[in-house]
Design goal:
The chain is an all-alpha fold. Helix content is 64%, strand content 0%. It is built from two helices and no strands.
Length: 61
């Protein structure tokens, strides 16, 4: 039984981040709020305004 457990533990890489090592998003950190909330919203807004402008330019041709 211990041999099976040891062989399973030896397969976990120690130098790479594992899914159990991550922590939830800390909303009190301004950096994380900007990266995970503000930036995606701004990217979506800029994408739709860009598409709207492209359609408007195409219609004027």
């Amino acid at each position: 039984m211990l041999n099976i457990l040891y062989s399973l533990l030896i397969q976990i890489p120690s130098s790479t981040p594992n899914p159990g090592d991550t922590s939830p998003i800390d909303f009190s950190s301004p950096f994380e709020v900007i990266v995970y909330i503000v930036a995606p919203i701004l990217l979506i807004i800029f994408y739709f305004t860009y598409r709207k402008k492209q359609r408007k330019d195409k219609d004027q041709e």
